[in-house]
Amino acid sequence: MAEAVTAPVLAGRRVLLLDRARVYVCGITPYDVTHLGHAATFVWADALGRVLRLLGVEPEVCRNVTDVDDVLDAAASRASAPYDAFAAVQQYHFEHDLAALHVRPVRYEPRAHRYVEHVIRLAQGLLAAGHAYARNGSVYFRGQDAAARADLDRAEALRLSAEYGGRPDDPAKDDPLDAAVWQAAEAGHPAWDSPWGPGRPGWHAECVVMAMSAFGVGVDVHAGGADLRFPHHAYHAAMAEAFTGVRPYARAWLHVGTVTVGGVKMAKSAGNLVLVSDLLERHTPAAVRLMILDRRWAEGWDFTDASLEGAAARLADLYAAAGRAGPAGEPATGEIRRLLAADLDVPAALEAAIREGGAPARLLIATLGLD
Ligand SMILES: [Zn+2]
Which among 90, 152, 165, 274 could disulfide-bond with 156, CB atoms 3.0 to 4.6 Å apart, if both were Cys? Predict the structure, then answer.
């Protein structure tokens, strides 16, 4: 009998697991339609959960909703809607699109607006431990080593911090790379009472408390788009570790490669959004899933119509292989398990499944939700 594989390799590191895995997925900011770039992250996180289950490990997934967010506030204000009502409608559309892509429901789906008290406690703890300071109604986390975590030089860290709303030019900060755990109230944003006056939670702090509330001091895997590596994930890990003293906060990171169109990152401002709902009008969910998954998860890629045609053809090959008698039993299906456990190597597993046919092909279809 082949040796059973129960420990996946993720991002090049073997992650030993018993019977459960704590998986935190940075979810959506519900202010806009679901595009292929979002979908790629959530389909990969879903595939991770399915592969873990194949390995006998129950994935406990927490995928948050960032419904307290400066970009969301601006979109709600343009729509003349309260931020929470606006977010609830967008979240409905998002979940509808993910269900259409056969993304399984997650165990925890916390919404940031219900965790304001938690962020206040996080800020108090970071202040007490000397990792943060209160000034002008805000609480700032000392972020100097966050850049080093992401292997960035200071100039690049400052550039990304500005791009992702980190306000490095805020004159109240001791260091431009400090990050607001609590942001003093401003016009056009919701505000809650706090020991430092009215204000709202900072983005990174929201995810810290939602992850900690679901899972305690750390997670086995933290997943999100590659563009969240810095500042969001670097600060998340730094704040969590400063608060708990437990390192590392995450045993593995799944930074899913960015999807581009014509070489440009998908964004409303770039006018190149590819909507999930549009793709599903012309192709099956299985074809869209395979287009996303038939590559290494960390790799960025460029979407073209040919990508979907190619995925549909690969899927037809896989179905034809599954219809053959093919080999049966553990040695044959064990190869598929081994390849998927090896950093979710879907391309290699797909090659093997199409070559062998039979049970291995059927296992791959069932595991990746391609039926
Ligand atoms: Zn997050």
Answer: 152
Query: Quick check: 1 pLDDT over 70?
Result: no
CA of 233 to the centre of ligand 1 (A): 7
- Tell me the CA–centroid distance for residue 176 and ligand 1, in Å: 21
Distance (angstroms) between ligand 1 centre and the Cα of 207 equals 5
Calculate how far, in angstroms, residue 223's C-alpha sits from the geometric centre of ligand 1: 9
Assessment of whether the complete model's pTM goes beyond 0.85: yes
List, as own/partner pairs, every contact residues 207-210 make where C-beta atoms lie below 8 angstroms and the sequence separation is at least 24, other chains included.
207/24, 207/26, 207/64, 207/66, 207/232, 207/236, 208/122, 208/236, 208/239, 208/240, 208/243, 209/115, 209/118, 209/119, 209/121, 209/122, 210/24, 210/62, 210/64, 210/110, 210/112, 210/115, 210/118
Distance from residue 210's CA to the centre of ligand 1 (Å): 9
Q: What local confidence, expressed as pLDDT, does residue 5 receive?
A: 60
Give the environment of ion ligand 1: residues with CB less than 5 A.
26, 207
Return the pLDDT at 270.
83
Which of 99-136 are b and which e, b meaning 16 or more Cβ less than 10 Å from the residue's Cβ?
ebbbbeebebbbbbbebbebbbebbbbbbeeebbbbee
Tell me the CA–centroid distance for residue 306 and ligand 1, in Å: 32
Task: Give pLDDT tens digits for 167-214.
Answer: 999 999 999 999 999 999 999 899 999 999 999 999 999 999 999 999
- Bridge partners of 60? 22
Ligand 1 centre and the CA of 28: distance in Å? 9
Ligand 1 centroid to 140 CA: how many Å? 18
pLDDT, mean of residues 17-34: 90
Separation between Cα atoms, residue 138 and residue 176, nearest integer Å: 14
pLDDT average, residue stretch 139-167: 92
Cα–Cα distance, 50 to 58 (Å, whole number): 9
> 353, 318 in Cβ contact below 8 A?
yes
